[in-house]
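One such shown below:
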Amino acid sequence: HTELDAENISLSAEMKAYKGNYFGDPQSLLERIRELTYELESENASLKTKMAAYEEARVEFGDPQTLCEQLDACIDHSLGMIPESFDNALEQVELL
């Protein structure tokens, strides 16, 4: 019974300590949030710059997905344009 009491007391002490650490006093929490916000500012700024550049490129060149599809179509078209005689010539070269 005494062991249980002792364990109970130490558990409640741990809980208090945990709550204290977890929630902290509002002032130190605010300070921590300010620190984190400050740390993230430069990262945020560079992300905004990247997003702006991406948006500019998208406006100028179109959506990346569409661009890839167009490129694939161009490649297929170009391959289709190669005359058979060229293929034959390649085979002749490979035979040499």
